[in-house]
């Protein structure tokens, strides 16, 4: 059953990713990106990461994507762009071969490693949010604070960048 | 049980899709969207390894990644608005003021 859900989420997210980079109208690209984000969040649920599922839906689909759509509608772009470099068929074959080889190697490799101390049973006992919270506020407190300062800087930077510049009148003598 | 390598393969395909989008699209906003696709591919990897190696650190890193993506989107879109105000275009080929 999990395999069926995995196949659905994986195939639809890949299809949505391809649509995002190939559709002509930027708004359609944004909607395909929304489908991609939702299906990636479905993959998170399959991996017992419900907290990240909620964060993905709220932050990515709810905040970031709406920001993209706002800017798209603010700029009112037309869909007239040229797509490919003129010599792209010569690069297509080697690129597909290389990508297929990488995926072949990835599927074959066993990916074993040292196990941590949070098995599935421990996550499911109190829920994923509890496990993430305990880890974040014990071992990763400094990173948490750094992310807070980073977001503050990003907000201030975005406001300063997007502010309407003050018009300078050379005749009046003052700014 | 879905093997870990299946998640890694999905993540690799998504990452290559995003990389292709960054390389072939001319619209700056679509380029930023392709960067978001690549970040999502990285997040799938982080969460999958976190699940299969029974450690919480991967999920935390994915959480911080999402925060960084939010900041990146805000600053990137502000830059797009500034460039659009000066050039009335979001074509990446026309943005060459800083070219050496």
Give the overall form of chain A: extended
Question: Gyration radius of chain A, to the nearest Å?
Answer: 23 Å
- The total of beta strands of chain A comes to 0
- Classified by CATH, the class of chain B is Mainly Alpha
Please give the alpha-carbon distance between the first and last residues of chain B. 53 Å
CATH architectural designation of the domain at 1-77 in chain A: Up-down Bundle
Question: Rg of chain B to the nearest angstrom?
Answer: 17 Å
Main β-sheet description of chain B: none
N-to-C SSE series of chain A?
HHHHHHH
Q: Which fold name is given in CATH as the topology of the domain at 1-77 in chain A? A: Four Helix Bundle (Hemerythrin (Met), subunit A)
Helix content of chain A: over 70%
Would you write up a description of this structure?
- The complex is a heterodimer of chains A (175) and B (100).
- With 175 residues, chain A is mainly α.
- Among the domains of chain A are: 77 residues, NADH-ubiquinone/plastoquinone oxidoreductase chain 6, subunit NuoJ (Four Helix Bundle (Hemerythrin (Met), subunit A)); 44 residues.
- Chain A contains seven helices and no strands.
- In chain A, helix 5 crosses helix 6.
- The radius of gyration of chain A is 23 Å and the shape is extended.
- Chain B is mainly α and 100 residues long.
- Helix content of chain B is 77%, strand content 0%.
- Chain B is built from three helices and no strands.
- In chain B, helix 1 runs antiparallel to helix 2.
- The model of chain B has no long low-confidence stretch (mean pLDDT 88).
- Chains A and B meet through helix 1, helix 2, helix 3, helix 4 and helix 6 of A and helix 1, helix 2 and helix 3 of B.
List keywords for this structure.
heterodimer; A: 175 residues; mainly alpha; 7 helices; 0% strand; B: 100 residues; Helix Hairpins
List the helices and strands and how they pair.
The complex is a heterodimer of chains A (175) and B (100).
Chain A: H1 2-22, H2 26-46, H3 50-75, H4 88-108, H5 120-126, H6 128-136, H7 141-162
Chain B: H1 4-24, H2 28-52, H3 57-87
Helix pairs in contact in B: 1-2, 2-3
């Amino acid at each position: 059953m999990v395999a069926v859900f995995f196949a659905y989420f994986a195939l639809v997210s890949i299809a949505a990713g391809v649509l995002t980079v190939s559709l002509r109208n930027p708004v359609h690209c944004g909607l395909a990106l929304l489908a991609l984000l939702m299906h990636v969040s479905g993959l998170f649920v399959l991996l017992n990461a419900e907290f990240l599922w909620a964060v993905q839906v709220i932050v990515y689909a709810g905040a970031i994507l709406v920001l993209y759509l706002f800017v798209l509608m603010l700029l009112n772009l037309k869909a007239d762009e040229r797509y490919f470099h003129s010599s792209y068929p010569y690069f297509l074959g080697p690129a597909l071969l290389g990508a297929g080889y990488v995926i072949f190697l990835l599927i074959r490799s066993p990916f074993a490693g040292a196990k941590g101390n949070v098995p599935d049973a421990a996550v499911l006992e109190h829920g994923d949010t509890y496990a993430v919270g305990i880890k974040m506020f014990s071992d990763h407190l400094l990173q948490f604070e750094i992310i807070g300062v980073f977001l503050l800087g990003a907000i201030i930077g975005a406001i300063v960048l997007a502010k309407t510049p003050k018009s300078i009148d050379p005749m009046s003598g003052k700014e | 049980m879905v093997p870990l390598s299946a998640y890694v393969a999905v993540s690799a395909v998504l990452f290559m899709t995003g990389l292709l989008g960054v390389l072939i699209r001319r619209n700056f906003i679509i380029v930023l969207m392709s960067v978001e696709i690549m970040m999502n591919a990285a997040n799938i990897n982080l969460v999958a390894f976190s699940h299969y190696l029974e450690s919480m650190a991967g999920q935390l890193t994915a959480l911080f990644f999402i925060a960084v993506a939010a900041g990146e989107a805000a600053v990137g879109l502000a830059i797009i608005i500034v460039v659009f105000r000066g050039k009335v275009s979001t074509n990446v080929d026309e943005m060459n003021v800083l070219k050496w």
